[in-house]
Write a structure and sequence with these properties.
CATH architecture of the largest domain: 3-Layer(aba) Sandwich
Structural class: alpha/beta
Strand content: 5-15%
Number of helices: 22
Number of strands: 17
Number of domains: 3
CATH class of the largest domain: Alpha Beta
CATH topology of the largest domain: Rossmann fold
Distance between the termini: 57 Å
Mean pLDDT: 92
Length: 506
């Protein structure tokens, strides 16, 4: 959701003349454009959005003076893109958002960041100071232990954001549509139903169970995507076991419209994140946007979002288990995150006290809700977030210097490594000629079958041109002069044509 929100905000608010997206293949390009076409047209972006095959990337990086290349996460391609940039010797800053930070395999990426080298013009963008500190500790640990220099990358903090929306004036109608009474006081907890990568709801049920009997109009609504069905069923059963089922509602996999309705219908928001996988808390700022006061666990980025002006933080307690640290590398990530989160305790009695205050004190809710909306406008509206990012990109670009090409010790170099697999390697001194089959195919204006997603590399116009050029035998090195595309693409097309009997070597 955070990446989806950012994508749209970037296109709406950033001051770039063009946005270039480099996608996996032609099918990905078609899917991307089809999925976003309504949004692109609605905001008049047709001439500013350009989608390219990822194989175009080296040529485009040399051709265009890009302000920056931005990645949606710091693991998938961040290091590889830096390597490519360095190899091309261009001065393009590369930045990336940081979301999840608690996975063991990320440590290898931090070592790779250090090994990639290059001038200081790249940045990782954490959504919270807590997340930035994790990055600092992880990169320091992996490089100090191996005696290498830390990554030459700046660490920035920019919170996640969402588009601001005005209060819905028909709040009473929404509550009626959702089945809530006029006297009901609604506490909303929204987040995917998953204990291993979101939060365990049992402490919240325990706390609500301590106050629910005080007023039958006090209601707890639990909403979100269903990620773990067995856990969801456990939660529902427990509401019956402690006799609060009549006051607890579940909203599973709601549409975007129903999700918005829930936030507008609620009286306050509660979230007790307990998992190290969390770094910020997007639903918390969604609640602030709706003008909801907050009760949250004093944990990760939550503690930076929620001040005394907008809500209450519930204390949490943990312990350092060296034994579990030793086991993390050999454990399933899902299981380990469950074990880690179950060791984070929430002050259940403190949570129950906060729930009681919020349920019973309308003036407190109104005061904190007003503060929440004001703080959202100052810090988390997308216009503000995009302004911060544009400043970071501009500063990095001003300080950028051309990277020095250098080998990548982690690259497989497949075509060298496996060169002994084939009988021979095609040479520029080879003489090639169109086959009778190729000439016949060309004369009949027919086309040869091309496998899925090969259409970028195998341009049928180039195939036809090569057949015309090689009616009589021609040295391969002389063939390239007839084409404006990079020689390696012509060489690849020649090999494909040899493979399918459209050409032969003499």
């Amino acid at each position: 959701m955070a990446n989806h929100y950012f994508f749209r905000a970037l296109l709406r608010y950033a001051d770039f003349s063009e946005y270039h997206f480099f996608l996996s293949n032609s099918a990905h390009i078609r899917t991307f454009l089809e999925a976003h076409q309504p949004f692109i047209e609605a905001h008049g972006l047709e001439n500013r959005i350009m989608a390219f095959d990822r194989l175009d990337l080296p040529e485009m990086m040399k051709k265009h003076n890009y302000i920056a290349f931005h990645q949606s996460d710091h693991i998938a391609m961040f290091n590889a893109l830096r390597r490519l940039r360095n190899s091309l010797g261009v001065d393009i800053p590369i930045t990336s958002f940081v979301h999840s930070l608690s996975y063991q395999e990320h440590m290898k990426s931090y070592l790779e960041m250090a090994a990639a080298g290059g001038p200081s013009m790249d940045a990782l963008i954490a959504s919270s100071q807590c997340g930035k500190k994790v990055l600092e500790q992880c990169t320091s640990r992996v490089t100090e232990n191996l005696g290498t220099d830390p990554p030459n990358i700046s660490l920035e903090v920019v919170p996640l954001g969402i588009d601001e929306r005005e209060y819905n004036p028909n709040r009473s109608d929404i509550r009626e549509q959702l089945g809530f009474g006029t006297r009901d006081v609604i506490a909303l907890c929204f987040g995917r139903f998953s204990d291993f990568d979101k939060m365990d709801l049992f402490p919240l049920l325990q706390a609500f169970g301590q106050v629910a009997a005080l007023d039958k109009n006090w209601r707890l609504v639990l909403g979100g995507a269903l990620h773990d069905k067995s856990y969801f069923e456990m939660v529902k059963l427990w509401t019956r076991a402690i006799h609060i089922a009549d006051q607890v509602s579940f909203v599973v996999d709601p549409s975007d419209e129903k999700k918005r309705s829930l936030f507008h219908a609620a009286d306050f928001f509660v979230s007790i994140a307990d998992n190290p996988q969390e770094t910020f808390g997007l639903t918390v700022i969604e609640a602030m946007n709706a003008g909801l006061p907050l009760i949250v666990s004093d944990f990760d980025g939550y503690r930076e979002i929620v001040t005394d002006e907008v809500g209450v933080k519930i204390p949490t307690t943990w312990f350092r288990f060296k034994e579990l640290d030793l086991l993390q590398p050999i454990m399933d990530a899902r299981t380990f995150h469950r074990i880690a989160a179950q060791s984070v305790s929430i002050d259940v009695r403190g949570l129950a006290g906060a729930l009681k205050r919020f349920f019973s004190d309308h003036s407190l809710r109104r005061k904190l809700g007003t503060g929440a909306r004001l703080q959202f406008d100052r810090k988390y509206a997308h216009r503000t977030i995009i302004d911060q990012l544009e400043t970071i990109w501009a500063n990095l670009k001003r300080a950028a210097s051309a990277a020095k090409p250098q080998p990548d010790p982690l690259a497989m170099q497949l075509f060298d490594t496996f060169s002994h697999y084939t009988t021979r390697t095609l040479s520029f001194e080879d003489r090639i000629q169109a086959t009778e089959f190729g000439l016949g195919l060309f004369a009949s204006e027919s086309t040869y079958p091309c496998l899925a997603n090969m259409d970028w590399l195998i341009d049928r116009r180039q195939v036809a041109k090569i057949i015309r050029q090689t009616r009589i035998p021609e040295l391969l090195k002389d063939l390239f002069d007839a084409f404006e595309v990079p020689p390696w693409r012509i060489m690849y097309t020649v090999l494909w044509m040899l493979k399918h009997d459209l050409l032969r070597t003499i």
